[in-house]
UniProtKB/TrEMBL annotation:
Function of the molecule: Catalyzes the reversible cyclization of carbamoyl aspartate to dihydroorotate.
Domain Dihydroorotase catalytic: from-to ranges: 68-254
Source species taxonomy: Bacteria, Bacillati, Actinomycetota, Actinomycetes, Mycobacteriales
Single Gene Ontology BP annotation: 'de novo' UMP biosynthetic process
Protein's name according to its UniProt entry: Dihydroorotase
Keyword Hydrolase: yes
Binding site for Zn(2+) 1: H77, H79, D171, D324
Catalysis: reaction(s): (S)-dihydroorotate + H2O = N-carbamoyl-L-aspartate + H(+)
Known EC number: 3.5.2.3
Species of the source: Corynebacterium occultum
Gene3D superfamilies, A to Z: Metal-dependent hydrolases (3.20.20.140), Urease, subunit C, domain 1 (2.30.40.10)
UniProt keyword Plastid present: no
GO-annotated cellular components: cytoplasm
Length: 453
């Protein structure tokens, strides 16, 4: 029984909102886009029949329109801005954006205000997520107090708090001090928590706003060299090798990082890595307009980087897709490029980008999408209940994709409170139609359910 395996292998999550009592019939869906459409019966939040008759009586019925059924997506890297910048995103609006994007669990980074460096702040975020009941919102604890890079936080206290923090990161900043990073790895070891590194050697990126290359030179922008990322990836690979705890690399952006990951994995070093949709398909050519919407950290790089990242995601050198969803208000984005805050929205466009780039083009199938956007992220974060096989007895964390629905991305139409999408006006050919969190329909026909909070 799957629950038993999960109990033995995975640390618990915090207290979950109760699933709706009763039955839900999800009709006419094709698991992983394969075979004839089936009807899925869900009882009290659990899948109980994958071959239900079309006329099975149920309290609620949702039409799948022969869409592709996948496990609910899991995003290891988002910024939901609460507490501190609720003017740009809240747990409730971020949860709605996640549900619309097909996600049933996301990890929200620690660079809030105040910083998530104590149990009480993480617990507040966890509980708000459960109250909204549109997506499981897992707070990421910071590695250092106030993200100051000086003193480690209490991993143990946050891991054992009601939020059950299972990932720690100073994302937005790098843990630049190698000795402190060594201590963090030693501390994390044995507690089964994951450290996620934002790889950026700060001495190499002072004042940098764009990828260091021809484009930045032409535009007169200060360059962010590949070596600033790669030197930290290499350093952390060696620390992970010698001090034996796994390290996750946030938003890999360069060809050299791919080479280093290949080497580290070949050595058996416990490392994993993510790539964002924007680093897979956008390059620094976008900067020619000086539009602040294209400023992001790490910066958009060159075509050879995007090609290497795509290949690495296909061959498993990079494990997962993560959005780095980073909402900003127009006062922080519609300004001179150098003054724009780095970051882009991602939750509502990621599935479409991955589907168009890899499935529509014939490079991969829907099982692979399930792997890189749901199964592997849940495995890496040791998250029970998500990224599970489509099987009887599993929690009904699901999404349905319409693989033939053409749509155009518009920031103003997004569920997110912010509008800073670099994909404005882009046309995509697959869309999430339905998302289900433990038997509760959190989005249907592209419309998120109202937040329960
Ligand atoms: Zn980052």
């Amino acid at each position: 029984m799957s629950e038993k395996i999960q109990e033995a292998d995975f640390p618990a999550t915090g207290p979950l909102a109760a699933p709706p009592a009763g039955t839900l019939l999800l009709s006419n869906v094709r698991p992983y886009g394969e075979g004839d459409p089936i009807n899925v019966l869900i009882e009290d939040g659990v899948i109980t029949d994958l071959d239900a008759a079309a006329d099975t009586p149920a309290d609620e019925q949702v039409e799948g329109n022969e869409g592709v059924l996948l496990p609910g997506l899991v995003d290891m890297h988002v910024h939901l801005r609460e507490p501190g910048r609720e003017d740009t995103e809240t747990i409730a609006t971020g949860s709605a954006a996640a549900a619309k994007g097909g996600f049933t669990a996301v990890f929200t980074m620690a660079n809030t205000s105040p910083v998530m460096d104590q149990p009480v702040i993480a617990e507040g975020v966890w509980l708000k997520g459960q109250n909204s009941n549109l997506c499981d919102i897992h707070p990421v604890g910071s590695i250092t107090k106030a993200l100051a890079g000086k003193e480690l936080t209490e991993f143990g206290m946050m891991a054992s708090s009601e939020a059950k923090v299972r990932m720690f990161s100073d994302d937005g900043k790098c843990v630049a001090d190698p000795l402190l990073m060594r201590r963090a790895i030693e501390y994390a070891r044995g507690m089964d928590v994951l450290l996620a590194q934002h790889c950026e050697e700060p001495r190499l990126t002072e004042g940098a706003v764009a990828h260091e290359g021809e484009m930045a030179a032409k535009l007169g922008l200060r360059g962010w060299p590949r070596a600033a990322e790669e030197s930290i990836v290499a350093r952390d690979a060696l620390l992970a090798r010698d001090y034996g705890n796994r390290i996750h690399i946030c938003h890999a952006s360069t060809e050299g990082t791919v080479e280093l990951l290949k080497w580290a994995k070949g050595q058996g070093i416990p490392m994993s890595a993510e790539v964002t949709p924007h680093h897979l398909i956008l390059t620094d050519e976008r900067l020619a307009t000086y539009d602040g919407v294209n400023r992001v950290n790490p910066p958009l790089r060159e075509e050879r980087d995007t090609l290497a990242l795509r290949q690495a995601l296909l061959d498993g050198t990079i494990d997962v897709v993560a959005t780095d969803h980073a909402p900003h208000g127009s006062e922080d984005k519609c300004v001179e490029f150098e003054h724009a805050k780095p970051g882009m929205l991602g939750l509502e466009t990621s599935l479409a980008i991955i589907a168009d780039t890899f499935v529509k083009s014939g490079l991969a199938d829907w099982r692979w999408v399930a792997k890189v956007m749901s199964e592997r992220p849940a495995e890496i974060t040791r998250l029970p209940g998500h990224g599970r096989p489509l099987a009887v007895g599993e929690p009904a964390n699901l999404c349905v994709v319409d693989p033939g629905q053409t749509w155009t991305a518009h920031g103003a139409e997004m569920a997110s409170k912010a509008e800073n999408t670099p994909f404005e006006g882009m046309e995509f050919s697959a869309k999430v139609s339905t998302t289900i969190l433990r038997g509760r329909v959190t989005c249907h026909e592209g419309v998120p359910a109202p937040s329960a909070a």
